[in-house]
């Protein structure tokens, strides 16, 4: 089974905009375990931008 590589951008899991990439099992290099698009600089910028909209509801973590 091959998993899709996704990036968390703006609260959603999206495919990267860059070239296709593959992750292989290091003990069996012929077995592809995940594949998807690489993240471009624009993807990283969007992921690091503050999320717009109301804050998520839920319990706050205490240290």
The low-confidence runs, each spanning 5 or more residues with pLDDT under 50, are none
Radius of gyration equals 16 Å
- Percentage of residues assigned to helices: 10-25%
Separation of the first and last Cα atoms: 39 Å
Domain unit count: 1
Name the overall outline.
extended
Q: What class, by secondary structure content?
A: mainly beta
**Strand residues, percent:** 35-45%
**Count of individual helical segments:** 1
How would you name the oligomeric state of the polypeptide chains in this document? single chain
Give the total of beta strands.
Answer: 5
Sheet with the most strands? 3 strands, mixed
Average pLDDT over all residues: 86
Spatial order of strands in the largest sheet: 1-5-4
Please trace the helix and strand order, writing H or E for each element. Answer: EEEEEH
Quick structural overview:
The protein has 63 residues and is mainly β.
